[in-house]
Amino acid sequence: MSAEEWQAVRLSLDVATRSVAGSLLPAVAVAWVLTRLRFPGRALLDALVHLPLVVPPVVVGWGLLMLFGIRGPIGAPLHEWFGVRLVFTTDGAALATAVMSFPLIVRSVRLGLENVDQGLEAAARTLGAGPVDRFLTVTLPLMSPGILAGAVTAFAAGLGEFGAVITFASNIPGQTQTLPLAIYAATQTPGGEATAARLALVSFGLAVSGLLLAELIARRMHLWLGRG
């Protein structure tokens, strides 16, 4: 593989890692709110969280462009006050990837949280544990398989994100050209079939490895927690 191809691989890993790191804690919080709380507008929040799963990724990228572009309601203050520009940058690619993979983490964490025996939390309450103590010592360990599986699945999905990234961050080699975008560029280049094939195999291998790792982590955590 050429230096440019390895650069696309490294950039994909970097973007996917950033996207998971930035979205994991908010996803856990949202999953807890949707699972444990009942409030007006809960169904609407649930729909908004899962919207990236059902709308075209290009629409998500366009929405991010409208919001975080240098003339957008969020992007303009960031650029003018802090000198932060997300559009057409690596950070922007990570943001687009995080938005697309966010519902995957939420869904996985919700499944883990729904399997938590609330009787154990009640027992901890009777023993004098406060809300924070109960969450850290009882709830969090029991839901951890869902968190880890969701993070790995989101990472694997982030490696293959295309539509939102190319719309919001463009296809700039060395900055935003991740594996899927490099494959697309190769298919548009005369004689680029071999490059596209190599990158596709790498992408396939990374995706399968991520999914297998997610399953392995979930099984190991269930065994560790005594559920297997």
UniProtKB/TrEMBL annotation:
**Localisation per UniProt entry:** Cell inner membrane; Cell membrane
- ABC transmembrane type-1 domain: from which residue to which, for each copy? 9-212
Name recorded for this polypeptide = Molybdenum transport system permease
Protein family: Belongs to the binding-protein-dependent transport system permease family. CysTW subfamily.
Name one cellular component (GO) term: plasma membrane
The transmembrane residues are 15-35, 47-70, 82-106, 199-218
Q: Which PROSITE patterns match?
A: ABC_TM1
Membrane topology of the entry: Multi-pass membrane protein
Q: Among its keywords, does the record have tRNA processing?
A: no
**Short name of any one Pfam family annotated for the protein:** BPD_transp_1
Note the NCBIfam families from the entry.
modB_ABC (TIGR02141), PRK09421.1 (NF006939)
GO function term, MF aspect, one: molybdate ion transmembrane transporter activity
Described by its record, this protein's role is as follows: Part of the binding-protein-dependent transport system for molybdenum; probably responsible for the translocation of the substrate across the membrane.
**UniProt keywords, alphabetically:** Cell inner membrane, Cell membrane, Membrane, Molybdenum, Transmembrane, Transmembrane helix, Transport
Q: Where is the signal peptide?
A: none
